[in-house]
From TrEMBL:
This is DUF418 domain-containing protein. The lineage of its organism: Bacteria, Pseudomonadati, Bacteroidota, Cytophagia, Cytophagales. It comes from the Bacteria. The keyword Transmembrane helix applies. The chain crosses the membrane at residues 34-52, 72-99, 136-155, 162-182, 259-283, 295-314, 334-357, 378-397, 403-424. The keyword Transmembrane helix applies. It comes from Spirosoma aureum. InterPro entries: Bact_Transport_Assoc (IPR052529), DUF418 (IPR007349). Keywords: Membrane, Transmembrane, Transmembrane helix.
Amino acid sequence: MANLSAAVATLPNDQSPVLYKPVAQRERIKTIDILRGVALLGILLMNIPGFAMPDRFTDAFRNDPENINYRFHFFITVLFEGKMRALFSMVFGAGVLIFTTRKEQAGAGKWAVTGLYYRRMGWLILFGLIHAHVLLWLGDILYIYGVCALILFWFRKLKPAWLLGIALALGSFDAITGQLFYHHIREQRLAYLDVVAAEKLNKPITKTQQEAKTAWLETAKEFIPDKAEIDKNTRLMRGNYTEVASHVRPFAFKIETNYLILSIWDALGLMLLGMALFKWGFLTGQLPPRIYRRLLAVGYSLGIPIVVFSWWYGHQFPNTTAFLDSQPVSISSLLYPIQRMLLVIAHVSVLILLIQAGVAKGVFRALGAVGQMAFSNYILHTILCTLIFFGYGLGYFGHLQYYQLYAVVLGIWTVNILFSLLWLQRFQFGPLEWVWRSLTYWKRQPLRRSVEIE
């Protein structure tokens, strides 16, 4: 716990008002803000196709290595896909410790800390519902983060080794459930193919076979839509607000209900891992440089070959259905958590070494500002992307090539950085961070930077 105490500023017990106020600027952990900023910007690399591209858009270039879209997709998948979300989840877990530990060190009782924390996360869940159903982003993470946080609270006192062990167990459980889900989908597919073969031979179809056919068609409509379904969804996404909502909201609701039990374990495990790494001092740069250099070397030397193999293996098949038809096990899915963690640890190690070396201070200052305003910047991603791509905005949905999306990403990153730097010159918190904190403490918080929060 020594590293945890060093990372979190100790507050005197006689300053009871601080229990109900946010952290002061001077008490922020800059490394955590920087990592959060990197993760937030990196997440847009994976999210923007969801805003801009029709379903199965990669089918057009998945087996064409000479295509520029293929090369962009390969680069982003290898280095960033899943890694940025993992980092964001890990930093979220660290944030839970920072929030609760500071309140406890300030003298807050158990129920005071619990009440503040659950109010905070209850609002986060509500923000997630608004994000998905009003702003219409199908890939919202605020809701699931809030749900995970309700569980996470009760693990915060565990020793790092226990947190790591539970995180690994949850990761393994997530991998197993993923394979079971894949097996279930594949069995539906094979049963459907049997029915199709029987129909071609003009054999009578039983009620069970008809139900199997219907089950697969419903599954395919949701996960592997055909061209007609893709064209229909594309027309909706190019329509007005009501039409876009008619496509997004049902899927968002399923993610928040039916599929929550499948998706929660990955996020929860990564948050617990973030807690362990924070307590060990890894995320705050408190370890010796040689440790980060070793982790960097191990992470990249093992992680990159694994993810490249996974890419190669998956791209031996022309599309998802061809993979399902022939592969009883998804090897890439089994390797995914391994390569992802190796690479995210390596990425963090690189960033920490650069911070420790004191290089690119202006860049890290900008990244820290983005991370300090991560909530506002995350919602800003959605506002900008929906207005650029959805039909009630500029209507560019499906009109750009995959590689062209990353010019848009660079533009949005520029807006994030300038917005964060300029805003924080005058204000203590980002606008949504301020709203969230005011709701958490049930009191309007000082916003202007001239009023320093103690």
